Amino acid sequence: MVMDILNTSRKEIVKWLKSNLSRYGIKLRKKLSQVMMVEPKAFRRIVEAINVCVQNCSIRNPVVLEVGAGLGTLTTAIGGNIKAYVVGIEIDKRFTSLLKEVQDLYPNIDIIIGDARRIIEAFRFVHVVAGNLPYHITSDLVLAISRSNAICSVITIQKDVADRLMAKPGTKNYGKISLFVQYMFDVELIDILPPQFFIPAPEVSSAIVLMKRKRGYSEYSTVESIVKCLFSFRRKHLLKSLKKCIGSEINIVELDLSDDLWRKRVYQLAPEDIRKLATIVRSITSS
């Protein structure tokens, strides 16, 4: 049984979800961060954002990967309202029978039972990644999306993680994941969702975030391990930290110390500094 999730009430969605969980003998597991969205306005905001992503792709039949298909609510909302090939990914095998019904009803929806962290990066062609990301692996999934060739992503995550993804260089919330994501994407807040928009209600608010690709992963990959090391010296000056992370002597004479880059502390590194840093690291490690 499939519900028109965009045009019904929260009360009806809750009733439908509980009925189907009972029908298949499924109890939501806390260790898998299983919470179900039940607010139709939130579903509409997500589908609208995905539709914008799809239209901007300028591709006839774009591929949309949905992380955490669960009972298929968002899966069918995407597949039934957007012209795209939708692949719902679900790690919990208990949902297989119900998702098989969804797959049989929609010719443009396929289901994969597996770990989205591996599947996202393994897909040769993926244009949009969407989903209500499990709290316990949110960072892993955001990194996987960034390393993929996805053009756009619409994800629901904890608000505090969203704050980190959008944080400005030099601020308290700014860290290596902020730099990582902002180098490759323009990040935009779509909406903030209170706990009562989910069952069971989580302890924190969530946020719908839109990430629009501006650069690929390849260039960042050359300095990814260095940046990870640098942020273990978050408040140190960049040059001093770089010496520790490179693991070899740096010839100060060859560096342009008048460059503003060297006046920065690690947590002030901006996305636009990465290209310059990559060039410097290549020069140091190849000499």
What does this structure look like?
With 287 residues, the protein is α/β, with parallel strands linked by helices. The protein folds into two domains: 5-218, Rossmann fold; 222-286. Helices cover 41% and strands 17% of the residues. The chain has twelve helices and nine strands. A seven-stranded mixed sheet has the order 4-3-2-5-6-9-7, sandwiched between helices. Strands 1-8 form a two-stranded antiparallel ribbon. Strand 2, helix 3 and strand 3 form a beta-alpha-beta unit. Residues 42-215 form the Ribosomal RNA adenine methylase transferase N-terminal domain. This is Ribosomal RNA small subunit methyltransferase A. Keywords: Cytoplasm, Methyltransferase, RNA-binding, rRNA processing, S-adenosyl-L-methionine, Transferase. S-adenosyl-L-methionine binds at residues 37, 68, 90, 115, 132. Belongs to the class I-like SAM-binding methyltransferase superfamily. rRNA adenine N(6)-methyltransferase family.
